[in-house]
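#struct-queue
[09:14] JT: dropping the first one here, sequence first, then the structure tokens:
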Amino acid sequence: MDRLIFSRKLDPSSATKITGPAGSVSFHHVKALHGSAPNTSDRSRRLLLYEYAAADAWPLIDFEVYGNYGEFEEKMVLGKSTLSPRFEDADARMPLPRPPDPGSIYRIQEFRKTGFESPIAS
């Protein structure tokens, strides 16, 4: 998370620690602030992400993930797609630039630690 979030809105010391045995899963809203402690073992940490959204919740950014509208429709699990997306009065943040070689989420986090600081947080 960028420094702006921590310095002005959230107190990380008030976070609730949620733990579970190996193989546990976490389900949470995309806007829920979440994280994990550094992996101090010599084994890689595995991660599986499933993303679900309402059929009328059109992606505001990163549409290249789907390639085209047909691929977007093919991934529909339930509901009827629409050409009129639903918009709610909600905060939206500009995305951080992707690293040149994004790889996994861990690679993105590593790049974030070493090479990129949000211009908004400065």
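[09:21] JT: and here's the second one, same format:
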Amino acid sequence: AVPGAAAAAAPGVSNMGSPPPSPPSPSVAVLLLLLLISTFNCGPVEAERPQTYIVHVSPSHKPPTFASHRHWYASTLSGLSVPAARILYTYDLAATGFAARLTLSQADALRGLPAVLAVEPDRARQLHTTRTPGFLGLTDVSGLWPNSHYADDVVIGVLDTGIWPERGSFSDEGLSPVPTTWRGACEVVADFPASACNRKVVGARSFYKGYEAARGSPINETEESKSPRDTEGHGSHTASTAAGAAVPGASLFGYAAGEARGMATKARIAAY
């Protein structure tokens, strides 16, 4: 036997048993090309899809030629690239600015304007719960509660899923008249009558245009509400945690029976 011959023969045997791979068919090549094109294209298309942004503006920059801030905002947006930007809300009390449907490039263009302080995307927030006043050690004997008269001159604004005003936590029994400094309103619609507001729930409004714009269709009123009425429960829970009246005999299906009460039992609530 010749060692060199065996070594030379081995590669030949291996090649005969595993033929070289054939080139991909034209249909497979076309499919791969389309996948590559769609991968590169989806980024820019997604970036130019309008979404809701909240734009904070310096009010002192408004030119005197505009009758109102809204006219000024509309004029500014009209100079942006297509598609046309759409204003959803304007703000002029706690903050100055507006919410609008913008593309990413339009939002970037606004950020470069001297009058614009910030441009933030509107994001859905995950709902959370919280604990009771016992966590802070509040008592009726002394301390913050009695010293502040249980915050009876305070109005707490709750931006959440609305409120269910008939709950015991929102009774106005024993409350003094509404503070004269309050300037808010109670939105009256079919499922939220004027009687829904009282000396406890002093204000209620609903804002849903941004939500409808984000989902791309009107709210289904058989499942959700366009009024301040809470159809989910979280807003009522949060409002009662902040300023719910004392409700004795509360429980969760018979468990954990006790008194339910908010942090500031005499504070007023404005629900949104």
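[09:30] RK: nice, looked through the second one.
[09:31] RK: The chain has two domains: 51-121, 133-271.
[09:31] JT: good to know. Helices lie at 3-17, 26-47, 69-78, 104-111, 144-147, 209-215, 234-243.
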